[in-house]
Structures are given as C-alpha cells and as structure tokens.
Specification:
The complex is a heterodimer. Chain A is mainly α. Chain A is built from 12 helices and no strands. The N terminus and C terminus of chain B are likely disordered. The longest helix of chain B has about 50 residues. Chain B has one domain: MetI-like fold (Orthogonal Bundle), CATH 1.10.3720. In chain B, about 75% of the residues lie in helices and about 5% in strands. The chains are: A mainly alpha, B mainly alpha. Chains A and B meet through α1, α2, α4, α5 and α6 of A and α1, α3, α4, α5 and α8 of B.
C-alpha cells in the first residue's frame, strides 16, 4: 500500500528538479566555507589548507568587539523578548476569546508584516531625536529594537506549546490546594519550558542575524558582526569574511539542531 | 447536562461575568509588556514616519516643522526646473519602482517554479527522510541573509565558480559579467527567499491526500491534468502563502540589491536609504516608506481575503 502511494505520487522531473535545487542551495554555502580555509588571500584561487583566516579574524580587534557586541545584544534581546512573549502567550491562549484578542495577536506579529527597511527608518528617526535630547549613545537602542522584532519569533513556539498542553494537570494542582502562583511555578512552567527554550533560541538567531535595523539604529563604532561584514563587502575581500561567516553559520546550525532536538522530545 | 440550560446560564451569569471581566483584565495586564515594547520600538515609530512624510525637508537632511505635501508628490513627480517648476513624472523613481515590482514578481515566479517540485519531493519522502530534507531547507531559512547573499556573490562574480565552470567546459571564452546587474539581484533574491516558498508549499502538499491522485489516474486523467485540476486547486492556499511570503520581503529588500546590484540597480529599499543619506530628503524617504508599507498592507489584505475564501470553499 505504501509502495503504491509512492508510485502514484511520483511526477516526472520533480525529483530531479528537487535534487538540483538542493545542490544550488548548498553549493554557494559550501564554496564559502571551503575558501575560508584557503592559505592564499583571494577568494578564487585555492592555495592549500590553512587556519590562517580564522586566526586573523580571532585576533582582529574590530571583529572581536563586533562579535562580543552581537552576543551581548542577542542575549539581552532574546531574554527580554522571551519573557514578554511568554507572558503574552499565557494571556492569549487556552481561554475564551475576549474582545481585543485579535488586536493583541496582530500587534505581536506586526514586525513580521512591516518591511524591515520601514521599521529601520522609523527607529532611526525616533532614536536620533532621543539621542540628540539625552546624549545617551549606548547599546540599549539596539537591544530595544532587537527585543521588539524578536517578540513574534519567541511568541509563536511558546503559544504552540501552550495550545498543545493538557489543562487537567493544572486543574489537578488547583484541586490539591496549590495557589495560582504555585500552579504556574510547579506545573505550567515546567511543562512550558521546551516551548520557552525554543522561542528563546529562535529569538537569539534572529537577533544575531539582523542587518538592516542594526545598520540604521547603531551609533558610530557600534558594529555588530553582520554590519561589520556589510562594511567589509565594499572593500577588497579576503577569506577573513568567509571565516567569520563560517563561524556564524556553525553557531546557527548548532542552535537549530538544539531547537529541533527540543521539538522532537515534545513529540 | 442538557437539562434546562437557560436557567443555568441566567443563574450563573452575574458571577461568570465578573470572573470573565477579571480574567480579561489579567490577560491585558499580562500582554502589556509585550504590547508596550512593540509600541515603543516597532509600531509607534511608524507614526513618526507618517508625520515626517508631511513635513518640509531641511537644508542638510532632517526636517523643518512646516506642513507640506511636497514629499508625497515627490514619490511620483518631480519639479521641472526649466519650466516654472511644473510637475512632471519622475522617470528615475518610476524606473526604481518598476524594477522593484518586476524583480519581486520574477523572484516569486522562479521560487514557485523550482520550489513546488522541491516541496513535492520532500512531502513524498518516507517520514524519516522527510525530516532530513526538511531540515536541509530550514538551515538556509535561518542562516544570515547577508551570508547567503555573500555566498551567491562568490558564485556569480567574474572570477566566481559559475564563470570558471563555464570557461572550463569551453562554453564561453570570457567571463559573463553578472555582478551589478538586475539579473544578479534576481538570482540572489531567488536564492535567498526560496525557503520561504518551499516551507508553506510543503505544509500544503503534506496535507494533500495522495489517494486523490489515484482517483484521477483511474479516471484516465494524464499527469498534467491531475496536476492542474486536482493538485493545484487543493494546495492553492499554500501557493498563495508562499507567494506572499516571498513577494513582500522581496519588495522591501535592502541587503541583497545593495550587495549584488551595486549603486545603480537600486530597489525601493535602497532608494529609501538614499533619501536619508546622500539624498538629504527625509520627508521623501518617509513618504516612500509609507507608500511601501501601504502596498505591502494591501497585498496582505488581499492574501487574507483569498486565503479565507479558499478555506471556506474547501470546507
């Protein structure tokens, strides 16, 4: 039966196209990773294997500062986004629909709908005014901006987890004289933890990868890794950029594997 | 349970209403931090852009607080300096809009043409293999857009892999110049946004009942007929979702056209940035941003309408 369905669902040329698509999808990424190990200083002539560009990137002060800044922003923003998204998810799931619920839902997903360049311009204007008035030039503008656009990415997995949760456990806790806080702390939160972890991870990846909003909001000397790379792309490139890209790539893939492991446990 | 439901409801209504009001208040209180954050750093600032689009441009960037519709006129028109400042259509702007729409539509078409077979392929694998192929699509989806754009640059530039391979097999003798052309931007956009097309298509095909194909073939339909009259209508919501997910970010793209298109092949996103940078015309930049937002919102509304209609007709 399974075999027969398999036969029927085959369409000529589809498998070939799909395989070509996967090759096209990964060939550029593999080339990029490959040349990061180039001993020579060009992106096109292979001159033997070396860790040279990784060492160069690691010892480059600008790269170090940008990497630390990226991590600082991503950790702060994903933390803030996850906390507020968890609260909002608890408020908007597993209950009778109330007036304004759709509005809350739309508002939370708003960063997914507005083109990034428009938000970037808007934040640049607003933060520019605030910078001029207060004189504060610090990292909090970036952290706030990142927190905001990370909220929907943190919210969606948490909400999905909540919707799949068994209500009876919480009723049982309440029957055993747990107060609402105890019920939340000892029943809901542990059950919700995988969703929260997944949401935090997605938020972290999204913050780490952001280019456009960061490029417009950052003050002078506040490059993150992606904006540093964007600046480098204007110059003559060395495989150092490949090395940085590969580093970011590896981090993203590790986080994604973590994310899918969490999700698999859930199922 | 069905006994005298009316009495039960009226009996509990007062207490229930109070409880419900309290729980609604709690829900708003719990959502408040998220809403405030989003208002301050995402939705609220859009209002400032709207205000700026109706102000007069400052001499060296910024704005002068004087009401003006000049910026909105400037989206499509320009003042003819040789003819008493009469309004004439701004060809340069129209070229950029047209390029943005053209590239976005073509990106949507290309990603659909190659994304549909890919999604079909993934959905028809056995479950274990399916998870693996799906993961392969998800990795680029979550990978930095800039890195992926940079990766495609290394393939298509003059000394890149593509030209080397074509010269190597003797198909061409001199490298094809692709960088800084519309074609480069199109290739890059299709590459970058492909996962956004494949994932919703996969979700739709995954729900598709393959027995319908069998029914089609039993009724002597050809493969093409089955595809056109059975598969496509049923997976239509996925097609619409994928198209909208690709079209909208394409229209507002900034990084990919900047890296692959160079200074000349601007799209709306780069044009907006230009107004806040060298252009020193903040109100025009603001008006362009609002116009882009408006188009995107219209596309979303159209999508929601079609999607809900589609949902209804399929039960």
């Amino acid at each position: 039966m399974a075999d027969k369905t398999f036969e029927v669902s085959r369409l000529p040329g589809f498998a070939t196209t799909a395989v070509l698509v996967f090759v096209a999808l990964y060939l550029p990424i593999c080339t990029l990773v490959f040349y990061s190990f180039n001993a020579g200083s060009t992106l096109s002539v292979w001159q033997g294997f070396s860790w040279r560009w990784y060492i160069d990137a690691w010892e480059n002060d600008q790269v170090q500062a940008a990497a630390l800044r990226s991590l600082q922003i991503a950790i702060s923003a994903s933390f803030i986004a996850t906390v507020v998204a968890t609260m909002a998810a608890l408020a908007t799931t597993r209950r009778k629909a109330f007036r304004g619920q759709t509005a809350i839902y739309a508002f939370i997903n708003q960063p997914l709908m507005v083109p990034e360049i428009v938000t970037a311009v808007a934040l640049m204007i607003l933060f520019g005014v605030i910078k001029a008035y207060t004189g504060y030039q610090g990292l909090w503008y970036l952290i706030l901006a990142h927190s905001a656009f990370c909220v929907p990415f943190a919210y969606l997995p948490i909400r999905a987890r909540l919707e799949g949760m068994d209500l009876s456990l919480e009723s049982a806790a309440a029957d055993l004289y747990a107060n609402p806080w105890q019920t939340f702390r000892f029943v809901t939160l542990p059950l919700l933890a995988p969703g929260i972890a997944a949401g935090a991870m997605l938020a972290f990846v999204i913050s780490l990868d952001d280019v456009v909003i960061t490029e417009f909001v950052k003050s002078a000397g506040q490059d993150t890794l992606p904006t540093y790379m964007l600046g480098q792309l204007r110059r003559t490139l060395t495989p150092e950029v490949n090395a940085i890209s590969t580093g970011l790539l590896v981090l993203t893939v590790l986080l994604l594997i973590g994310f899918s492991l969490i999700n698999r446990k859930k199922n | 349970m069905a006994a005298t439901p009316g009495a039960a409801i009226t009996g509990q209504s007062e207490a229930e209403r109070l409880l419900e009001a309290r729980s609604t208040r709690n829900a708003w209180a719990l959502s408040a931090p998220a809403l405030i954050l989003l208002f301050c750093a995402a939705a609220g600032p859009l209002l400032i852009v709207l205000v700026y689009s109706f102000l007069t441009k400052g001499p060296t960037g910024g704005v002068v607080w004087e009401f003006s519709t000049e910026a909105w006129l400037g989206v499509l028109y320009t003042r003819d300096i040789f003819n008493d400042g009469n309004l004439v259509l701004a060809d340069a702007h129209l070229t950029i809009f047209w390029r943005s729409v053209k590239i976005s539509l073509l990106t949507t078409l290309i990603t659909f043409a190659v994304g549909f077979p890919t999604a079909w392929f993934i959905a028809t694998r056995p479950p274990k293999a399916r998870a693996f192929w799906l993961f392969l699509i998800t990795i680029p989806f979550w990978t930095n857009l800039l890195i992926r754009t940079f990766a495609i640059t290394e393939i298509i530039r003059n000394e890149g892999l593509l030209n080397k391979a074509l010269i190597g097999i003797g198909l061409i003798s001199a490298p094809i110049r692709l960088m800084n052309t519309d074609t480069a931007v199109l290739i890059g956009m299709a590459y970058v946004y492909l996962p956004l097309m494949v994932l919703p298509l996969f979700a739709a095909i995954d729900r598709f009942d393959m027995r319908l194909l069998e029914a089609g073939y039993d009724l002597y339909a050809s493969r093409l007929q089955v595809l056109r009259h059975v598969v496509l209508p049923i997976v239509k919501p996925g097609i619409i979702a994928g198209s909208i997910l690709v079209f909208i970010p394409s229209l507002g793209a900034y990084v990919t056209p900047r890296v692959l298109g160079g200074g000349k092949n601007m799209m709306i996103g780069n044009f907006i940035e230009l107004q806040f940078g060298q252009g020193r015309n903040w109100p025009l930049g603001a008006a362009l941003s609002m116009a882009l937002l408006l188009v995107v919102m219209l596309a979303m509304i159209l999508y929601v309408r079609t999607a809900t209609k589609g949902g209804k007709s399929h039960g």
